[in-house]
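Notebook entry, structure prediction.
Reason for the run: the old model in the group folder had no record of what sequence produced it. Starting over properly, with the input documented here first.
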Amino acid sequence: MPELIISISLGLVILLVLGFGISTKQSFNKMMIKIELSELELDRILSVQRDVLVEMIKEILIHQEIPESNIQTLTILDKVEHQSSMVDRQIYTLKMTDIMDVIHAYIEKNKAILDHQKVTELHESLLESHEQLKAARRQYNAHVSYYNQKVIVFPSSLIAQWNKFYKRPFFEVDTLKKEE
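New structure, fully documented this time:
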């Protein structure tokens, strides 16, 4: 009789451990999907922002004479690829922010450019995409923060190591800017 109780207890413990392992792995898979969807959203917004920047530069060039030094600063960036690393996305974002700063400074000095409806619409689109990027970055970082906690906290860290789930980097443009 005691052997039966021990066998049943051992069986229940094994079932609980297996259940925990399976549910934790599923949880990690769901978190990875959320992170990947957030990355796709970041890429989409960066692509839209790039397209608006390119269009804005073209419109400004049509309506205003821009000094040669500013034209060189307004380099056109390649589109970001989904397979790019988070550091690549951060550097890309910094470059676009620098270009946006040049455009905003130019508009501040030459407010008459905003008399052109297309330029005004593009400027508003640029500001809107910048806000969307900040929101997408916050969402991505929230998903990564939760995921990273699960990767390092016991007992889910055991499942993470066993299934090769590793910490993911945050999308931190501000930190990267300070390093430069």
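Summary: The CA atoms of residues 131 and 151 lie 30 Å apart.
The old model has been moved to the deprecated folder.
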